[in-house]
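Morning F.,

Quick status update on the modeling queue. The single chain you submitted on Monday has been processed. Sequence for confirmation:
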Amino acid sequence: MGKMPGINFTWFYIITGAILLAFYLFGGDNTSFHKEVSYSQLTEYISKGYISELVVYDNNEVEAYIIPDSAVNIFGIAPQKISDRPLATTRIGSIEKFEEFVDKQQAQESFKGTVLYKEKPQYWSGFLVNILPLIFLVGIWIFLMRRMSGGGGAGGGAGVFNVGKSQAKLFEKNDSNRITFKDVAGQEGAKQEVQEIVDFLRNPKRYTDLGGKIPKGALLVGPPGTGKTLLAKAVAGEADVPFFSLSGSDFVEMFVGVGASRVRDLFRQAKEKAPCIIFIDEIDAVGRARGKNPSMGGNDERENTLNQLLTEMDGFGTNSGIIVMAATNRADILDKALLRAGRFDRQIHVDLPDLNERKEVFKVHLRPLKLDESVEIELLARQTPGFSGADIANVCNEAALIAARKKKNAVDKQDFLDAVDRIVGGLEKKSKVLTSKEKETIAIHEAGHATLSWFLEHANPLIKVTIVPRGRALGAAWYMPEERQITTKEQMLDEMCAILGGRAAEELFTGHISTGAMNDLERVTKQAYAMIAYAGMSDKLPNLCYYNNNEYSFQRPYSDSTAELIDNEVKELINSQYERAKQILTEQSKGHAELAKVLLEREVILAEDVEKIFGKRPWASRSEEILDNESAAESTDTTDTNDTAETAEIKE
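Structure tokens below.
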């Protein structure tokens, strides 16, 4: 049986409007017995007594209502066949003369009816005043109804009637543009974990025959830009199954109950396409832990959406072939019910790429670039510790832009070095005006950092120092951080001492301190509090961690006396490293002064220049290979402007 055609309400609206208009224009007092007569005929009817009522309008039109018994003399119709009042109309020349004629007939008693004087109704103006607003409102209503039902080019899911429908974008299998693991560089550990999901989707019978259950969900956890979304698309591409992609914020709407409705519709569509993958990016938008503090209230709509998501994930068939993948960089705030076994069965950590993985990522992003022979992928990988895949893509793009700005035919090594400096430290501002005194203070500050990093065992190896303003920083020092998984107390103390070298050098060699060390002090303070309150590295508070990830708690997880003790320990720790920095600078004052002088003259110095002044670094065995490879790295120490300048810092 064929499908019945849908009802088009547009014609219904048009017909209804036409009926209303016709009723307005032609209804009312209009009669079927109406005759146009001349002025002489009208005067004759009046003098013979045929007229019962006269209506005189201001436009010289006259309506004469005829006595039914006299209608036979005018229309030739018997009175009993006349149901409405018969009417004769004409136009007169002068209302005053017509009024004199009527008065004369009334005096002779030939006209005994009434005379009314009225303004002629303007039908067109009445139409404009009364009908047009109605038509306008009907038109607006039709337009809104069409938009709400998804018509008018708004798309199937754009209307209010479809507001409860899922907003997920569907990527069908056998898509020619599908992404596979070949398109995901690095992340070998994460790819190995998700490979099992691919196997589940390709051949679920192998696992179900042994009594195994297909996992229901996988949560990708990692910093921004590490490729979580790309990895989820690669899983769908490798398994060659439909892929539903949406963001956690797509469930959020201004209407109550919409989020839960969209979750239901999403899983309904997924069941029709099973086996398939549902990917929810930034799931923390709806998966955040439900309100733990009743006094603060809660977002009922978000919690209802989360409840529906929990129900759906634990409600559909065990072997239905639907796998939910989600991504977040804030796993600590997710609701525990969402992370339990049976929902997100496994958490896959997508970390920042290490050295070898960065090489693979660079190979992917360097493909479309025209490269010079001087470009070394090994150097670029060592140059970018702590960079995510998105950061590396940005470096490659920035290098291409710099080369194009310089009108080069290919992107060379120096373009990549400039790109890293540009991203980490900001754009060079050689036009910034500095007084000679300010420039000297900046040189002493940066020379203090360089000197301490040279003589501290666990400080990061120095690569380059500059006093050229870059971004909001007036000076910067580039180091090659050692990639390590854990950090000892001695390493953290040496790093703190090196960071405080700028402020210590200012106090020792200029006799005053400035706001240039603001960023250094901020970093040292945060690191000291982390050591004391989180890492348990205090002598008076050993082996204690006061970290609390409860975002709804506004109470510190320790007493006021403990807070005071933490503050005192932080002050003591920072002051001890500050005194240590001043002691080393005092011992190396001659070399520091020479280094500051060279820096003031040349504005930029490299590690080789520092080695000429201080000699071979005492701890060169650890960093010799890195320095020989001419590796450059992030800017970790800067001299701030008088504003609260923020230094780009990337740690792995």
